[in-house]
Amino acid sequence: xxxxxxxxxxxxxxxxxxxxxxxxxxxxxxxxxxxxxxxxxxxxxxxxxxxxxxxxxxxxxxxxxxxxxxxxxxxxxxxxxxxxxxxxxxxxxxxxxxxxxxxxxxxxxxxxxxxxxxxxxxxxxxxxxxxxxxxxxxxxxxxxxxxxxxxxxxxxxxxxxxxxxxxxxxxxxxxxxxxxxxxxxxxxxxxxxxxxxxxxxxxxxxxxxxxxxxxxxxxxxxxxxxxxxxxxxxxxxxxxxxxxxxxxxxxxxxxxxxxxxxxxxxxxxxxxxxxxxxxxxxxxxxxxxxxxxxxxxxxxxxxxxxxxxxxxxxxxxxxxxxxxxxxxxxxxxxxxxxxxxxx
Length: 343
What we know:
The chain is α/β, with parallel strands linked by helices. It is 22% helix and 27% strand.
């Protein structure tokens, strides 16, 4: 049975900050958007990598967390009624005879749109796996690369490996739930918020958890169920850690994935665009944010916002070649203010 296609003006691939702001810019031009993201929530890198980490270079916001920025962008886009589709990866992209594009996801969704906007950061996120022999046998059973539900770890003997925000945040948040909490990192310095590091050290001092210096070299267990690990300390000596659950947080790597098969010109796994329209080698397909490249490119959220604004103007002209668009300012245009619900 063929899935009925969802018809829209624009399909945006990626619901990170650039994709979310693109909804706003396209909405001002009456272009309806559906967004597809492989993650289970909006925000892209901001939400997945550093939801609580402060960002200091967003204009007019001296400091804002990744999560707050995402929420503000969602609120800004809301008047235009975007539709979000999470936990979906675009597998196929083809151009139809009538000039529209058809998009298919791994979850079976089908879209038909006048314009495609790729705002997928560096592609799809995949966890960086530690180089431990045989770890695949434990994945999904007692080794997990993310925490979907804290309750799943209740009364477990948890070992977390890593030294970034995710490792420290989950050490602190899971500690009250688990039977025992241990953290292992190759050094005593961390790439996490100082407050989180201080809280972790306080838990160690209160004997509510243990911290180990070293790196995991081997896993022990049967049928995918961990019983413990072997670690090598900084002194070169091996030691054993008892645990039944391992959470390695070594960050995420970004894979271009199916995008590489869409027939677009690529340069070092990035999509070249012009700086007038931010259009790819395929007319009607645009790319904004970290996934694109052009002379002088800066991988900043600020730059992505600028790209989204120019892309929206070009996308409207592409989708409506006979229409005339009058450039307007939100500060003075009553028609734009009505769209935003403020007039």
